[in-house]
Design brief:
Number of strands: 0
Distance between the termini: 92 Å
Number of helices: 4
Order of helices and strands: HHHH
Radius of gyration: 33 Å
Shape: elongated
Oligomer: single chain
Largest sheet: none
Structural class: mainly alpha
Number of domains: 2
Length: about 120
């Protein structure tokens, strides 16, 4: 049998390296596709919603905030008459903000008092 020459060894090694390179390129393309899928807006929204749903106590806070916003909006509509002036609009918005914060805080305190008893 004939011993392989150094040229044949080099050619064999080149083919091995070309195969390794092709495998690495395929792996990189697959990783890039996975990265693109994980960064898509839909996946970001899904993961955010999953985190929000699993956060403890969030449902109660959302309810408190929604009730507070409703009370602030209702208070603004009931207490501030429809005036076209800028002062009336500023007063109405300030009143809405105050009522929203007040009601939201009171609901949160009531919820904490009930849970501690």
């Amino acid at each position: 049998m004939k011993q392989p020459s150094s040229i044949e060894n080099l050619e064999l090694r080149i083919k091995e390296l070309e195969l390794q390179y092709a495998e690495q390129v395929a792996d990189i393309k697959q990783s890039a596709a996975g990265l693109i899928d994980s960064v898509s807006p839909m996946q970001i929204l899904k993961s955010t919603l999953r985190n929000v749903v699993t956060t403890p106590g969030l449902r109660g806070n959302l309810i408190d905030t929604a009730v507070g916003l409703g009370a602030g909006f209702l208070g603004k509509k009931l207490l501030v008459k429809k005036t076209g002036g800028i002062f009336g609009k500023i007063t109405g918005s300030a009143l809405q903000l105050l009522l929203t914060n007040f009601v939201s805080q009171k609901l949160h305190q009531a919820r904490e008092d009930n849970s501690s008893e």
